Protein: Methyltransferase type 11 domain-containing protein
Amino acid sequence: MSKENNMNWFLSLKKPFNYHRVGYMFFICFICYLISSPEPIFSMSWIIYFVLFLAMGIVSDAIVQYLILVYSKKRCQKDIENATLLKNELLEIAETMTMDESWIESPRQYDEEIILSKYVQPTDHVSFLSVDQGELAKNFKPLPEATFIIEPYSDITSVQNKFADMPVKVLKYTPSGQMPFKDEKMDVVMCQYSNYDKLEIQRVLKPGGYFVVNQNGTANLKEFLHIYMPFRMKGSWDAYACAGTLESIGMRIVEKIDDYGTLRFHSIQAIHSYFKKYSPDIADINKYQIFYLKALKEIKEKSFYEMTTHRFLVVAQKA
Structure:
């Protein structure tokens, strides 16, 4: 726990002993007794001896759990005190939280707007599949006259208002989950940090059309994911894996780039501000207290907290 900086575990040692493994022990004792008992199954003697066996199992386990707690409190006394101080400091910071955009991001290896502009012509039909409420399309210049935005989760009316004087239509998926276009309608589909159905992309693209996908990879913010998703799926999602899925449906890969970088924060306010801007759910300090406590500890020890970033871009052409 010290190696993982798990402040929440040290804080849990301050709580009074509470045994809550009765169900677990009942299952273990039942299986063990079912295998080892010489008595006829479910006979009166079998039931009596099982109740005694179960009671001994629960009492023994409760004693062991209590002794572990007593030992842990003694062994980790300093860690418990430090975790308590960190939690109190974090609560004080949360009460007086201010915006701080002083985080340092390593230079990016590519610009998706510049790459996209190489494949878009003024007369093209272009679709932006995004979860950024139309920000990429809003900043992209010049927009073709036939520009469409698919926002799977946002209110399309609020997004459409951003493009009041621009040739842009904001749409949603059809009730059956398809893109709202006829077959072979699009010259370019741009996927910005959104999930996509490769067969749908294949369907709506014209022959020779381009699919440009810009997404976060497996290693993105892995320091956060390691805390809350320690048993993630095997494999990695990167430019090569993405390109492989598109090649499997007959598309030709034109470009593929992996961009690994870092984010460096010198305060909890900066971390909070970053996530409030890019991922509001993670900005909830109470919900993700373990993460913020770990970050605060590292800031106090090293004067900064660093996170890994990973994004990638793939350009594929329909045959």
Notes: The chain has a mean pLDDT of 91. The chain has twelve helices and eight strands. The first strand starts at residue 104 and ends at 105. The chain has two domains: 7-95, 104-317.
